Amino acid sequence: MKLIISSLSGQPIYRQIEDQIRSAILTGDLKAGEGLPSLRHLSQELRVSVLTVTRAYTELAQEGLVENIQGKGTFVADSGDQVMRQHLEDRVQSLLGEAVDTARRAGMEPDRIRGLLDGLLGNRGSAPASEEGKE
């Protein structure tokens, strides 16, 4: 896992670490059960304090994305999959909200908006290929 830290971003370093690890988990680049670099290793690699990395890992643990196992390290939590699904669902809701707002500004009626969405669902299927046949 390669993290990039910028002293020019205006964002605290622990938050940059946290955001990049969160993103890797939510996009599936880091899988449930996968270990994160040790606090000492990551702090040396990034040339930051161990406390900075500790704070990032602690924030991620409080979100349920990672779990700290005493004497073993920090690992992506199994609940990360649930958190990822919730994150994606929240993102879809936000994007749909923006689309509806745009459609309303364009003067579209609700039935027309529903028709467009139904058309998109019909053309693309109602579930990702990996979800088909699970029911």
Automatic annotation (TrEMBL):
Keywords: DNA-binding, Transcription, Transcription regulation. Residues 11-79 form the HTH gntR-type domain. InterPro entries: Tscrpt_reg_HTH_GntR, WH-like_DNA-bd_sf, WH_DNA-bd_sf. Gene3D superfamilies: Winged helix-like DNA-binding domain superfamily/Winged helix DNA-binding domain (1.10.10.10). This is GntR family transcriptional regulator. SMART domains: HTH_GNTR (SM00345). It comes from the Bacteria. Pfam families: GntR (PF00392).
